[in-house]
Amino acid sequence: MVIKTATFVKSSGKWQECPEPNMPEYAFIGRSNVGKSSLINAMMNHKDLAKTSGTPGKTQLINHFLVNETWYLTDLPGYGYAKVSKSIRKDFEKLITNYILNRKNLVNLFVLVDSRHKPQTIDLEFIQWCGESGVPFSIVFTKADKLKPNAVIKNIEDYKTELHKTWADLPEIYVTSAEKKEGCAEILSFIQTTNEFLINNSVTFDE
Question: How confident is the model at residue 150 (pLDDT cuts 50, 70, 90)?
Fold first, then answer.
């Protein structure tokens, strides 16, 4: 997929305030400081489309971007650690949950996981929740350039081992590096193929 245009649409504090659900939508989520904004910028060939920050928990709203005038890319608040109060963190969790469960044009949720670490309970629990809730999702391992290749492979295999304890089949898995733009083309290819399938099967999201 060639990215011709990628523009910011709006930030929403409630899922009901999101843009009209009339186009396919692909959302990105992950633990705070997983490198979500950097990956989005790398995919879109745009240095400052999604705002990056050294402060975990910077994304606190649902941010929508319109890509190629045909589909939405959504940047969701991170789950887990963030330097905010417990009440605000609960608001984040409610915002995320309501969006994922109610956004009818959400085609796929990309769950970002930091490839530098061993399996984290919070990631495994979120992935499990997605499965139990019937949410279509893929797993995206980030920051693959920050470790030696063998170490990355080992961590990913450890995640697969943990997931296979409760999953017979695993979802699509992507290994990425925002800095080197690794994995970006594969994710965009998946989105393009899915969009073509929706068009060919006359799938619409309008009321």
Answer: very high
User: Looking at the predicted structure, is the pLDDT value of residue 175 above 60?
Assistant: yes
What are the structure tokens assigned to 39, written together?
């990956």
Provide the whole-model pTM. Answer: 0.90
DSSP, residue by residue, the chain? -----EEEEEEESSGGGSPPS-S-EEEEEEBTTSSHHHHHHHHHT-TTSSPP-SSTT---SEEEEEETTTEEEEEPPPBS--SS-HHHHHHHHHHHHHHHHH-TTEEEEEEEEETTSSPPHHHHHHHHHHHHTT--EEEEEE-GGGS-HHHHHHHHHHHHHHHTTT-SS---EEE-BTTTTBTHHHHHHHHHHHHHHHHHTT-----
Cα four-point dihedral sign 171, 101, 99, 158: negative
| φ, ψ at 158 (rounded to 5°) | -65, -40
Q: Residue 88: pLDDT above 60?
A: no
- pLDDT band at residue 99 under the 50/70/90 scheme: very high
